[in-house]
Amino acid sequence: MSTRRGPGRPPGAPAARREQLIEVTIELVGDQGYPAATLGRIAEAAGLSKASVLHHVPTVAELLAAAYEQVLASLVAEVGAAVEVAAVTDRPGVYVIAMIGYFRDHPRHTRVASEALVHLGRPGQSQERWEPLARLLEQARTARGLPPAADLRTAALAIGGAIDAIVREQQTDPDYDSTDAAEQLAAAVTTTLLSPPASRPR
Predict the structure, then answer these.
(1) In Å, how far are 108, 133, 170, 173 from 166, measured between CA atoms?
(2) How far is Cα 120 from Cα 135, in angstroms, rounded to an integer?
(3) Could you point out which of 47, 94, 118, 200 has its C-alpha 20 to 30 Å from the C-alpha of 40?
(4) Side-chain half-sphere of 181: how many Cα atoms within 13 Å?
(5) What is the pLDDT of residues 88-131, one digit of tens each?
(6) How far is CA 87 from the centre of its chain?
(7) How deeply is 47 buried, as exposed, middle or buried, from its count of CB atoms within 10 A (0-12, 13-18, 19+)?
(8) Are 40 and 84 in contact (CB under 8 A)?
């Protein structure tokens, strides 16, 4: 099988076209939901024929899956960067604020993630969600001189659920102050999990 490019095809063109299709899918799904991301509308938005779209990606569902993976990669990179520059003692709170802030600042990504969950069953592995936060909590407790906690998995699951609830609320109510909610949740995490027992309010 020949691997030579046809005349006029620039290096990396297939990859660039696929990226374009993923971006178009994020825009359509993010603005109007998964039902709006039909093959015809994706092709029209990308300036391609339906056959050309199918040449690069066989189904719309696969495009949604690829869009979800791109959203996830962007989320991990941005939140990870925020956490990395924070002091170890403060990283759980920074994680909470960065997660909620990402979805507030990227509403299309929020909807793509929600639609992928509903239509593709793509929530990700549970451990992939709670384990990084549990590790941040453990490291912060150690850095603060606190003893090991009995069950940081449950704590991380509860915090993740609270993050999801705040993100959903900001989706449904434009007047909801998710910035303040994120700060309240981060403060609660610090008070309940990262403070010596004697300093916690009774």
Answers:
(1) 16, 17, 6, 10
(2) 29
(3) 118
(4) 18
(5) 999 999 999 999 999 999 999 999 998 888 888 765 567 888 99
(6) 23
(7) exposed
(8) no
Q: If pLDDT is split at 50, 70 and 90, which confidence band does 198 have?
A: low
Query: How confident is the model at residue 2, as a pLDDT?
Result: 31
Q: In angstroms, what CA-CA distances link 128 with 9, 131, 179?
A: 40, 6, 25
Mind giving me the DSSP string for 80-106?
HHHHHTS-GGGHHHHHHHHHHHHHHH-
Of 143, 144, 132, 121, nearest to 96 by C-alpha is 132
Question: pLDDT tens, 4-20?
Answer: 333 333 344 477 888 99
Helix (H, G, I), strand (E, B) or coil at 136: helix
List domains and CATH numbers for the chain.
13-197 (1.10.357.10)
d(CA 150, CA 115): 36
Cβ–Cβ under 8 Å, residues 55 and 29: no
For the entire predicted model, the pTM comes to 0.83
Average pLDDT over residues 67-75: 93
Query: Which residue reads 């949604």 in tokens?
Result: 64
